[in-house]
Amino acid sequence: SLPHSLYDLSPKTLEASVISETQGDKMNFENKPTLVKKIEAVTKEHFYQPDLAAFLEICDNIKQDPNGPEIALSALLEQLEQSAATYPESASLTLTLLDFCFKNCGYQFLFKLCRGDYLKKLKNLIEHGPYNLGIWNRLLTLIKVLGLAFSDHADFQPINALYQELLSQSIRFPNVQSTEVELLKRMIPPLGIPGALRLAQPAANTSQFLQGIRENLKYASLNRHAFDDLLQNLARSPSDSIKRTQLQNAAVRLQGFQKGQVLK
Predict the structure, then answer these.
(1) Which residue has the higher pLDDT, 183 or 28?
(2) Is residue 16 over pLDDT 80?
(3) Contact between 90 and 45 (Cβ < 8 Å)
(4) Start and end of every VHS domain (predicted)?
Protein backbone atom coordinates (compact mmCIF):
# COMPACT_ATOMS: atom_id res chain seq x y z
CA SER A 1 0.00 0.00 0.00
CA LEU A 2 1.05 3.61 -0.52
CA PRO A 3 2.49 5.54 2.45
CA HIS A 4 0.04 7.93 4.12
CA SER A 5 2.66 10.62 4.75
CA LEU A 6 6.33 11.42 4.46
CA TYR A 7 6.80 9.87 7.91
CA ASP A 8 5.88 6.46 6.46
CA LEU A 9 8.73 6.64 3.96
CA SER A 10 12.08 5.07 4.69
CA PRO A 11 15.07 7.46 4.73
CA LYS A 12 16.30 6.09 1.40
CA THR A 13 12.88 6.42 -0.22
CA LEU A 14 12.46 9.92 1.18
CA GLU A 15 15.89 10.95 -0.12
CA ALA A 16 15.07 9.51 -3.54
CA SER A 17 11.74 11.34 -3.52
CA VAL A 18 13.41 14.68 -2.72
CA ILE A 19 16.05 14.11 -5.39
CA SER A 20 13.36 13.19 -7.91
CA GLU A 21 11.33 16.29 -7.06
CA THR A 22 14.41 18.52 -7.32
CA GLN A 23 15.32 16.98 -10.66
CA GLY A 24 11.75 17.44 -11.82
CA ASP A 25 11.78 21.13 -10.88
CA LYS A 26 15.11 21.55 -12.64
CA MET A 27 13.79 19.81 -15.75
CA ASN A 28 10.65 21.97 -15.74
CA PHE A 29 12.79 25.10 -15.46
CA GLU A 30 15.11 23.98 -18.25
CA ASN A 31 12.12 23.32 -20.52
CA LYS A 32 10.77 26.84 -20.10
CA PRO A 33 11.36 29.50 -22.77
CA THR A 34 14.47 31.59 -22.19
CA LEU A 35 12.32 34.69 -21.73
CA VAL A 36 10.39 33.04 -18.89
CA LYS A 37 13.63 31.98 -17.20
CA LYS A 38 14.91 35.55 -17.32
CA ILE A 39 11.67 36.93 -15.89
CA GLU A 40 11.67 34.42 -13.05
CA ALA A 41 15.34 35.05 -12.33
CA VAL A 42 15.01 38.82 -11.90
CA THR A 43 11.81 38.73 -9.82
CA LYS A 44 12.99 36.41 -7.05
CA GLU A 45 12.23 37.65 -3.56
CA HIS A 46 15.89 37.66 -2.49
CA PHE A 47 16.54 40.65 -4.77
CA TYR A 48 15.73 43.87 -2.93
CA GLN A 49 16.50 46.21 -5.83
CA PRO A 50 15.41 45.88 -9.45
CA ASP A 51 18.12 44.97 -11.95
CA LEU A 52 17.42 47.77 -14.41
CA ALA A 53 19.83 46.48 -17.05
CA ALA A 54 18.20 43.04 -16.95
CA PHE A 55 14.72 44.59 -17.09
CA LEU A 56 15.62 46.56 -20.21
CA GLU A 57 17.18 43.49 -21.80
CA ILE A 58 13.94 41.59 -21.16
CA CYS A 59 11.99 44.40 -22.83
CA ASP A 60 14.27 44.14 -25.87
CA ASN A 61 13.79 40.35 -25.95
CA ILE A 62 10.01 40.79 -25.84
CA LYS A 63 10.06 43.17 -28.81
CA GLN A 64 12.36 40.91 -30.84
CA ASP A 65 10.21 37.77 -30.42
CA PRO A 66 6.84 37.65 -32.26
CA ASN A 67 5.48 35.65 -29.31
CA GLY A 68 7.31 37.78 -26.75
CA PRO A 69 4.29 39.75 -25.44
CA GLU A 70 2.23 36.61 -24.89
CA ILE A 71 5.08 34.70 -23.23
CA ALA A 72 6.03 37.62 -20.99
CA LEU A 73 2.47 38.50 -19.92
CA SER A 74 1.75 34.89 -19.00
CA ALA A 75 4.97 34.62 -16.98
CA LEU A 76 4.58 37.98 -15.24
CA LEU A 77 0.97 37.47 -14.20
CA GLU A 78 1.66 33.92 -13.04
CA GLN A 79 4.54 35.25 -10.95
CA LEU A 80 2.28 37.96 -9.55
CA GLU A 81 -0.45 35.47 -8.69
CA GLN A 82 2.05 33.33 -6.80
CA SER A 83 3.73 36.18 -4.92
CA ALA A 84 1.15 38.92 -4.27
CA ALA A 85 -0.20 37.50 -1.01
CA THR A 86 2.90 35.93 0.50
CA TYR A 87 6.10 37.30 -1.09
CA PRO A 88 5.86 41.11 -1.27
CA GLU A 89 9.48 41.57 -2.35
CA SER A 90 8.97 39.30 -5.36
CA ALA A 91 5.60 40.90 -6.13
CA SER A 92 7.19 44.35 -6.02
CA LEU A 93 9.89 43.37 -8.51
CA THR A 94 7.27 41.75 -10.75
CA LEU A 95 5.13 44.89 -10.74
CA THR A 96 8.18 47.02 -11.54
CA LEU A 97 9.07 44.79 -14.48
CA LEU A 98 5.44 44.77 -15.67
CA ASP A 99 5.45 48.57 -15.53
CA PHE A 100 8.70 48.62 -17.52
CA CYS A 101 7.09 46.40 -20.15
CA PHE A 102 4.02 48.61 -20.46
CA LYS A 103 6.25 51.63 -21.06
CA ASN A 104 8.97 50.07 -23.20
CA CYS A 105 7.51 47.14 -25.17
CA GLY A 106 5.22 49.11 -27.44
CA TYR A 107 1.85 48.66 -29.05
CA GLN A 108 1.93 44.87 -29.45
CA PHE A 109 2.45 44.28 -25.75
CA LEU A 110 -0.56 46.38 -24.78
CA PHE A 111 -2.61 44.96 -27.64
CA LYS A 112 -1.95 41.43 -26.38
CA LEU A 113 -2.85 42.53 -22.84
CA CYS A 114 -6.30 43.49 -24.13
CA ARG A 115 -6.87 40.39 -26.24
CA GLY A 116 -5.99 37.54 -23.89
CA ASP A 117 -7.32 36.73 -20.43
CA TYR A 118 -4.64 38.89 -18.83
CA LEU A 119 -6.97 41.70 -17.76
CA LYS A 120 -9.22 39.09 -16.19
CA LYS A 121 -6.23 37.87 -14.18
CA LEU A 122 -5.51 41.41 -13.02
CA LYS A 123 -9.15 41.75 -11.98
CA ASN A 124 -8.96 38.47 -10.07
CA LEU A 125 -5.86 39.72 -8.26
CA ILE A 126 -7.77 42.80 -7.14
CA GLU A 127 -10.80 40.77 -6.06
CA HIS A 128 -8.58 38.48 -3.96
CA GLY A 129 -6.90 41.44 -2.24
CA PRO A 130 -5.99 43.49 -0.42
CA TYR A 131 -2.40 42.42 0.02
CA ASN A 132 0.61 44.13 1.55
CA LEU A 133 -0.32 47.82 1.43
CA GLY A 134 2.57 48.71 -0.87
CA ILE A 135 1.72 45.91 -3.31
CA TRP A 136 -2.00 46.70 -3.20
CA ASN A 137 -1.47 50.39 -3.98
CA ARG A 138 1.02 49.70 -6.75
CA LEU A 139 -1.31 47.21 -8.42
CA LEU A 140 -4.19 49.69 -8.29
CA THR A 141 -1.92 52.50 -9.50
CA LEU A 142 -0.79 50.42 -12.47
CA ILE A 143 -4.39 49.77 -13.54
CA LYS A 144 -5.42 53.40 -13.02
CA VAL A 145 -2.52 54.82 -15.03
CA LEU A 146 -3.24 52.41 -17.88
CA GLY A 147 -6.95 53.22 -17.80
CA LEU A 148 -6.42 56.99 -17.83
CA ALA A 149 -3.62 56.93 -20.42
CA PHE A 150 -5.65 54.94 -22.94
CA SER A 151 -9.20 56.02 -22.17
CA ASP A 152 -9.60 57.39 -25.71
CA HIS A 153 -7.54 54.74 -27.54
CA ALA A 154 -9.87 52.44 -29.50
CA ASP A 155 -7.59 49.40 -29.40
CA PHE A 156 -7.12 49.58 -25.64
CA GLN A 157 -10.70 50.12 -24.48
CA PRO A 158 -10.70 46.87 -22.43
CA ILE A 159 -8.09 48.46 -20.15
CA ASN A 160 -10.26 51.49 -19.43
CA ALA A 161 -13.31 49.21 -19.11
CA LEU A 162 -11.55 47.28 -16.33
CA TYR A 163 -10.65 50.51 -14.55
CA GLN A 164 -14.24 51.79 -14.78
CA GLU A 165 -15.63 48.45 -13.59
CA LEU A 166 -13.41 48.49 -10.51
CA LEU A 167 -14.42 52.08 -9.82
CA SER A 168 -18.07 51.03 -9.94
CA GLN A 169 -17.26 48.39 -7.31
CA SER A 170 -16.10 51.17 -4.97
CA ILE A 171 -12.44 50.22 -5.24
CA ARG A 172 -10.46 53.19 -3.91
CA PHE A 173 -7.57 53.98 -6.22
CA PRO A 174 -4.52 55.96 -5.08
CA ASN A 175 -3.82 59.39 -6.56
CA VAL A 176 -1.46 59.30 -9.54
CA GLN A 177 0.82 61.89 -11.10
CA SER A 178 -0.51 63.40 -14.34
CA THR A 179 3.07 63.27 -15.66
CA GLU A 180 3.07 59.49 -15.30
CA VAL A 181 -0.15 59.22 -17.31
CA GLU A 182 1.21 61.53 -20.01
CA LEU A 183 4.48 59.61 -20.27
CA LEU A 184 2.66 56.36 -20.88
CA LYS A 185 0.27 57.98 -23.36
CA ARG A 186 3.24 59.31 -25.36
CA MET A 187 4.66 55.80 -25.68
CA ILE A 188 1.69 54.78 -27.85
CA PRO A 189 0.81 57.62 -30.29
CA PRO A 190 -2.78 58.16 -31.46
CA LEU A 191 -4.31 55.88 -34.08
CA GLY A 192 -4.38 56.97 -37.70
CA ILE A 193 -0.85 58.38 -37.72
CA PRO A 194 1.60 56.45 -39.98
CA GLY A 195 4.31 54.69 -38.01
CA ALA A 196 7.11 56.71 -39.61
CA LEU A 197 5.44 59.94 -38.56
CA ARG A 198 4.57 58.95 -35.01
CA LEU A 199 8.12 59.20 -33.70
CA ALA A 200 8.58 62.51 -35.49
CA GLN A 201 5.63 64.19 -33.77
CA PRO A 202 6.93 67.18 -31.78
CA ALA A 203 6.29 67.35 -28.07
CA ALA A 204 3.53 69.84 -27.24
CA ASN A 205 5.83 71.90 -25.06
CA THR A 206 9.28 70.43 -24.53
CA SER A 207 10.42 72.89 -21.88
CA GLN A 208 7.27 72.35 -19.78
CA PHE A 209 7.61 68.60 -20.24
CA LEU A 210 11.19 68.68 -18.95
CA GLN A 211 10.22 70.87 -16.02
CA GLY A 212 7.33 68.55 -15.15
CA ILE A 213 9.68 65.58 -14.99
CA ARG A 214 12.10 67.51 -12.78
CA GLU A 215 9.34 68.49 -10.38
CA ASN A 216 7.44 65.22 -10.21
CA LEU A 217 10.21 62.66 -10.04
CA LYS A 218 11.38 61.94 -6.52
CA TYR A 219 15.11 61.52 -6.17
CA ALA A 220 15.50 59.23 -3.15
CA SER A 221 18.67 57.17 -3.59
CA LEU A 222 19.37 58.84 -6.95
CA ASN A 223 22.05 61.29 -8.05
CA ARG A 224 20.03 64.41 -8.83
CA HIS A 225 22.94 66.30 -10.41
CA ALA A 226 23.68 63.44 -12.78
CA PHE A 227 20.04 63.24 -13.80
CA ASP A 228 19.81 67.01 -14.33
CA ASP A 229 22.87 66.78 -16.60
CA LEU A 230 21.07 64.09 -18.57
CA LEU A 231 17.98 66.30 -18.93
CA GLN A 232 20.07 69.25 -20.10
CA ASN A 233 21.96 67.19 -22.66
CA LEU A 234 18.79 65.73 -24.10
CA ALA A 235 16.99 69.08 -24.11
CA ARG A 236 19.62 70.83 -26.24
CA SER A 237 17.97 69.52 -29.42
CA PRO A 238 14.24 69.62 -28.65
CA SER A 239 13.42 68.94 -32.30
CA ASP A 240 15.27 65.61 -32.17
CA SER A 241 12.52 63.04 -31.60
CA ILE A 242 15.00 60.26 -30.81
CA LYS A 243 16.49 62.29 -27.96
CA ARG A 244 13.01 63.08 -26.66
CA THR A 245 12.24 59.37 -26.68
CA GLN A 246 15.46 58.67 -24.78
CA LEU A 247 14.44 61.27 -22.22
CA GLN A 248 10.97 59.80 -21.83
CA ASN A 249 12.38 56.31 -21.40
CA ALA A 250 14.92 57.55 -18.85
CA ALA A 251 12.17 59.16 -16.81
CA VAL A 252 10.01 56.05 -17.00
CA ARG A 253 12.87 53.82 -15.91
CA LEU A 254 13.70 56.05 -12.98
CA GLN A 255 10.07 56.04 -11.91
CA GLY A 256 10.07 52.24 -12.03
CA PHE A 257 13.29 52.16 -10.03
CA GLN A 258 11.84 54.60 -7.50
CA LYS A 259 8.73 52.45 -6.99
CA GLY A 260 10.84 49.39 -6.35
CA GLN A 261 12.82 51.05 -3.57
CA VAL A 262 10.42 50.82 -0.65
CA LEU A 263 7.46 48.63 0.21
CA LYS A 264 5.12 50.73 2.28
Answers:
(1) 183
(2) no
(3) yes
(4) 42-174
Q: How far is it, in rounded angstroms, from Cα 188 to Cα 190? A: 7
Q: Could you tell me the CA-to-CA distances from 59 to 9, 211, 221 in Å, in that order?
A: 46, 27, 24
**Window from 98-107, 129-138, 174-183 with minimum mean pLDDT:** 129-138
C-alpha distances in Å from residue 254, one per residue of 103, 117, 176, 213? 12, 30, 16, 11
22-259: which CATH architecture?
A: Alpha Horseshoe (1.25)
- Best CA proximity match to 125, nearest among 184, 179, 178, 79: 79
List the chain domain ranges.
22-259
Which carries the bigger pLDDT value, residue 262 or residue 225?
225
Q: What is the mean pLDDT of residues 45-66?
A: 88
Is pTM beyond 0.90? Reply is no
* Helix runs in the chain, H state only: 11-30, 34-42, 52-64, 68-83, 88-104, 106-115, 118-127, 133-149, 157-168, 178-187, 195-198, 206-216, 224-235, 241-259
Question: CA–CA separation, 112 vs 118, rounded Å?
Answer: 8
5 versus 186: the higher-pLDDT residue is 186
Q: How many Å from the N-terminal Cα to the C-terminal Cα in the chain?
A: 51
- DSSP letter assigned to residue 6: G
CA atoms within 13 A on the CB side of 58: 33
Q: Give just the sign of the alpha carbon dihedral 57, 239, 236, 211.
A: negative
